[in-house]
């Protein structure tokens, strides 16, 4: 069966009534998550995992996994759309990938062109979403075929590269990011060892024999951590919201934005494919590029429409590109894709090269649903932009209890143990303390997901080589991946030592 046939089969799954509803709910919630400052895509996706698990409880495993991942991915790329709204109207980015949109978006709003900025952001995001999906369709099959040739040594090195990439660029301090990575790897070792049957770090507590549940830790660190931050730091926004006038852009606006949208989409897609790079870097690079390409660079920062069109296209294309390493190689390139991967593993579905062979319903159903979801987002964001703007004014006193209730009820509905509720609370406090002290939590979650897989592949590789560690450097692909991983950590360090500034990926 060729790629087109697989994609058509994917559409037959995406057009099932329950999956249309799941995609719609995902993009709607995602836009709201992006609009609300403070709740990023990681918190939104983590919070909804237990909700989707409960909603899909009666379905067969594959259908449940497909429906869940359709909703969760919708939240991810929907948040990229929504993030621009607060950047443009309030000068407050909804999430880190929309930071550069404030530079020209808010200036346009002050000049009475908020509607044009919002609609160009929506059109750019739609075009970028479709371009990155076409790239995903074209690259998914060949990449997974290459990955099928990988042995345990190559997989071990590839996963180390994934960890190094996220740790090298996450947060303000690489030392803190690496500490978080090691902490995540340590948490991943708790439980009964699958090979030797020995209990590790369980202290004779039966509930720890199966290890710490990824879902509880992700919801605690991201969703509850954000609640504690808002309550304890009295994190209230009091900015003045700009008025939205005419929504449709003029013909000149469309002409000025066409090339930046195309350039931003392509750049964002290729940056998104790289593990650790993510949407924040894509939007920064797009802005810098557009300023260099522009005939009037002095207009940037004063309301240039290219300064909105390019970065907004780039951050959306990056979220599509980030699905490639996740789906084809089983390596999440960011914190949000690590959470998506954890959600798939919960359904006993392992992302990676065998995903397209063993579970085509899930892989192609998700890809097809993203085409549908992007169209829904364009329809939602153009005429309903004024409604979404109202969400910004939702008082925190209503929002926070909803997040707390979903966190506790959701985790208990999936785990059925009070231990997980205590763990959830502890992770919430820990998440707050870590973020307050600039410790990035995305590397911790990524290490927790990848840790057991890294250990498993290392053991298999050492079994093949009779315990010789040289297998990791004698294999050419493994050696190249290890060199790239080392470079990913060392290059930013050397640049910092030379006094050069390094662009960081706060999205994780």
TrEMBL record:
It holds the Pfam family TctA. Residues 20-446 form the DUF112 domain. It comes from the Bacteria. Keywords: Membrane, Transmembrane, Transmembrane helix. InterPro entries: DUF112_TM (IPR002823). The chain crosses the membrane at residues 20-51, 63-83, 116-140, 177-195, 207-225, 266-288, 326-350, 362-385, 397-415, 421-450, 471-495. The keyword Membrane applies. This is Tripartite tricarboxylate transporter permease. It comes from Planococcus shenhongbingii.
């Amino acid at each position: 069966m060729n790629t087109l046939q697989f994609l058509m089969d994917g559409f037959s799954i995406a057009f099932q009534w329950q999956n249309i509803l799941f995609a719609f709910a995902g993009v709607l919630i995602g836009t709201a998550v992006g609009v609300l400052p403070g709740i990023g895509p990681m918190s939104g996706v983590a919070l909804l995992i237990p909700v989707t698990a409960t909603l899909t409880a009666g379905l067969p495993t594959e259908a449940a996994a497909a429906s869940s991942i359709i909703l969760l991915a919708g939240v991810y790329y929907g948040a990229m759309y929504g993030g621009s709204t607060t950047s443009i109207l309030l000068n407050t980015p909804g999430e880190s990938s929309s930071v550069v949109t404030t530079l020209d978006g808010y200036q346009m709003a002050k000049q009475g062109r908020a509607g044009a900025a919002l609609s160009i952001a929506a059109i750019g995001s739609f075009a970028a979403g479709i371009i990155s999906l076409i790239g995903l369709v074209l690259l998914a099959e060949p990449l997974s075929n290459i990955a099928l040739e990988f042995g345990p040594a190559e997989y071990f090195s590839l996963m180390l590269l994934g960890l190094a990439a996220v740790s090298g660029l996450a947060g303000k301090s690489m030392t803190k990011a690496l500490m978080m990575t090691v902490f995540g790897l340590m948490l991943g070792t708790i439980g009964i060892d699958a090979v030797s049957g020995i209990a590790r770090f369980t202290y004779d507590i039966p509930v720890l024999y199966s290890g710490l549940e990824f879902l509880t830790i992700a919801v605690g660190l991201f969703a509850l951590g954000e609640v504690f931050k808002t309550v304890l730091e009295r994190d209230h926004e009091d900015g003045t919201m700009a008025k939205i006038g005419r929504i449709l852009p003029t013909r000149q606006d469309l002409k000025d934005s066409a090339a930046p949208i195309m350039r931003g989409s392509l750049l964002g897609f290729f940056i998104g494919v790289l593990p650790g790079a993510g949407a924040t870097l894509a939007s920064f690079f797009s802005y810098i590029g557009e300023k260099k390409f522009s005939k009037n660079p002095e207009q940037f920062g004063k309301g240039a429409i290219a300064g909105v069109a390019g970065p907004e296209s780039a951050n959306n294309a990056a979220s599509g590109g980030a699905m490639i390493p996740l789906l084809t190689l089983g390596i999440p390139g960011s914190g949000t894709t690590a959470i998506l991967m954890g959600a798939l593993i919960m359904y006993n579905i392992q992302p990676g090269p065998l995903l397209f062979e063993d579970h085509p319903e899930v892989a192609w159903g998700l890809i097809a649903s993203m085409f549908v979801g992007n169209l829904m987002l364009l329809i939602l964001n153009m005429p309903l932009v004024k409604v979404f703007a109202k969400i910004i004014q939702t008082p925190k006193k209503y929002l926070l209890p909803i997040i707390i209730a979903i966190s506790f009820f959701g985790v208990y509905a999936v785990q059925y143990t009070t231990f997980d509720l205590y763990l959830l609370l502890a992770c919430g406090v820990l998440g707050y303390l870590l973020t307050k002290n600039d410790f990035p939590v995305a590397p911790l979650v990524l290490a927790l997901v990848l840790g057991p897989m890294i250990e498993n592949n290392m053991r298999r590789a050492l079994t093949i080589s009779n315990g010789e560690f040289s297998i990791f450097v004698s294999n050419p692909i493994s050696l190249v991946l290890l060199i790239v991983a080392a470079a990913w950590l060392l290059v930013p360090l050397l640049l910092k030592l030379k006094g050069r500034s390094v662009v960081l990926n706060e999205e994780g």
